[in-house]
Structure formats: C-alpha cells, structure tokens
Amino acid sequence: MNHFDLVEGEGGGELYCEGVPLSRIAEAVGTPVYVYSTATLERHYTVLRDALVGAGLKDPLIAYAVKANSNVAVLRTLGNLGAGADTVSEGEIRRALAAGIPGERIVFSGVGKTEGEIAFALAHGVAEINVEAEPELHLVNRVAQRLGTRAEVAIRVNPDVEAGGHAKISTGKADNKFGVSLSEAERLYANAANMAGVRPVGVACHIGSQITDLAPMEAAFGKMRGLVERIRKEGLTVERLDLGGGLGVPYFNQPTPPTPADYAAMIGRVTQGLDIRFAFEPGRMIAANAGVLLARVILVHERPEGRRFLVIDAAMNDLLRPAMYDAYHDIRPVKPRPGEPLPYDVVGPICETGDTFTRDRVLPPLEAGDLVAFMTAGAYGAAMSSEYNSRLLVPEVLVKGDQFAVVRPRPTYDDMLAREAPAPWL
Ligand SMILES: *Cc1c(COP(=O)(O)O)cnc(C)c1O
Prior knowledge:
By secondary structure, this protein is an alpha/beta fold. The protein contains 12 helices and 20 strands.
C-alpha cells in the first residue's frame, strides 16, 4: 500500500502524494524530481515491525538498508520510529549518524571494507561489523586492537541458496562474492572467539533482493538456525541472528511478493525456540513504494513506420533500474487525459539506446508538457543516480500530509563545474 493516489477534481483526476498534488511539486522544484511519502515510509516500517513482533520475535533490530535510499531525511524519518541502519561504506555510516541513528543501531556490512572504514566504524560505536571473509576478520582484529577496543562481529554466511529477482542482485549462491560457507563460518566463529580484538556475537546472511518466493528464504534461514545450534554446541555463545533483507515489492506486473505477515510467520516457525536477538536489513520493501520519479514530457515523436517515442526529461542517469536490471516501473500520467490508450516507447534524452525506460507501453494519450510518474521508484532510484551526460543530479522532495520539503536540492551548473579543478599545466 502507498500514498500516491488519483484524486478526482474539477478538471479531471490528478495524482497526489498524500495531500500534495504532484503538479505543485513539479512547478515549485522543476522536473525530473523524486517525491517520497512520509506516511508510506512509516507504514512499511511499522507493518514489518508489528509482523515480526507478532510472530514472537522480541525486540528485533530493523536495520534499514541505507543503500536503497540514503537521503538523510528518509533515514531520519525511519530512525525516529526506532529503525537502525545497515550500511556498506563510511559514507553510509556518516549519513546514518547525521540522521540521528545511534551507533548502537548501526550494522556495517559489505565485502570490501577498508582499514580506514573499519576504524571509522569502531570509533563511532557501530554495533556490529558483518565480516565477510577470513582476511577481513584478521583486519578487524588488528584495527580494533590498535584502537584499544574489541569489535563485535557477526560472520556473514553464504548459505548457497539461489534467490533474487535478477542475476545482478542474487547474493546467496556459493559462486558469488558474498560471505563464507556454513562450515567456514563455524571455523571462523571459533577462531574469532580467541582473538583479542574481536568478539563474535552472531551470524548473518542476506541471500538476494526482490525475492518474491519465501521458499529460498526458508531454506536459507533453516540452515542459519542449524549453524547457530552447532556453534552453541561447541560451547560458544551466539546472541544475534541477522537475516538480511531482500523481500520483494510489487512492481505492477511482477509476481506478488509475500506479505510481511507471511514472511514473519515463516521466520517464527523456522526459528521457534531459538533464544536469540534478531536483526533484519530491509531496504526495498521499506522505500520502493514510498517514492516516485516525476518527469515531464518533452515531446512525442511519431515515426512514419509506426513507433511512437515519448521523450521525457528524466533519463537513465536519474533512474538506472530499467537499463541496469531490465526493471519494470508502472508509469502513470499525473493528469490523465481522456481518450484511447496508445503504445509508447518511453525514452530519456541520453545518447545511448540503453536510455529506454520501456517499449510499447500502453498509456493514456500524452502530449508535450504533460507530467508522468514512475511508480515504485523510492528504492535504488535517486541512490543510484549520477550526472552522466552532465545532467544535474536529480533533486528529492519529502512529503508529509499537505507539506513538502526539498530534501536534496537540484545543484546549479555552477555547482557542478565548481567541483572540478584545472590541472596546473592547463
Ligand atoms: C542490499 C542489501 C540489503 C537490502 O536489500 P533489499 O532487497 O533492498 O531489502 C540488505 N543487506 C545487505 C547486506 C545488502 O547488501
């Protein structure tokens, strides 16, 4: 469920975000622009937390995956509800801290943490470092000892389960770069228990993204449970079980994902009787449906042989998912015109054929100047945007009720140029 709805008015319907017509934001901020709904962000977080608690998990840490949407206002909205943050770089840790999320609710994940990043995390009291490889365990041990501290670590396990909506976002198979095998994890955990600079507190997994089937998750979580039990049998304590993120969202024509209630019930079942503190790292399911990318039609170009191109002012640098993952986004006119729907190829201005959002999409008739919204764009949208083709970084707006605020302004061309420096010989 989200808070982007068509509201009927005098001149026909218009798409709103909560109490704000999207056209008002387009006029005030220009296009392209991302628009996020506070009510949807809050609802998704709350629904997940209530489902997990309802399934008998006590006090779970919901560490929102910052990479999905890293805007500090979004992080603060979630942090105010008690969310933690799952981070994969120093930059993301800094964002979480800037949003007021305390170190004790921050998890540091990722396959390639540098020494400097580990030191930064430890100096800022990050609760848990998810270690993904043996050399990394030794590195964390060394850095922590140098800083005179003891790092709480979880071992990231690759449970060898195939899951995820696209090969580029599947992370739980043995042949991809994430984590260590189950048997390796057991050995590393025991090793870590003997190191002066680390304290192993748990095990973690994250098997992929945009997962719409509970079966692979259930298989992976069952393996994680077995791992916890085996480690405990060796006389070691395991306090935390981090089950990652990955739950899918409905991108309109996709398989319907499981509900948070089904997800939570499955976890309750698989981990029944395991006395442990749970952590989760949801990204997409919190943010995706809480955002749209708003764009304006520049022109409609009809080829004599029949193709009809809708050229809009948003491009692959603003929303990379269609080009990168063949992703489908529902596209809705902000003020739908009456008339026969027509097939459109929706494209951006970038000089690459890859800058095609969709082909033969049947939409209500559109004209130059009309606004369109790409739905379900709140996750992996602005966070993946760039200035490719020297297009200005796309701005972001947060709506709450009938108010809105620009939470990342569009830079000026002077800002863009001022970031570069001439070489002394030029
Ligand atoms: C990307 C990622 C997530 C979030 O995945 P979603 O599919 O957005 O829920 C969580 N944990 C880790 C380690 C990740 O890399």
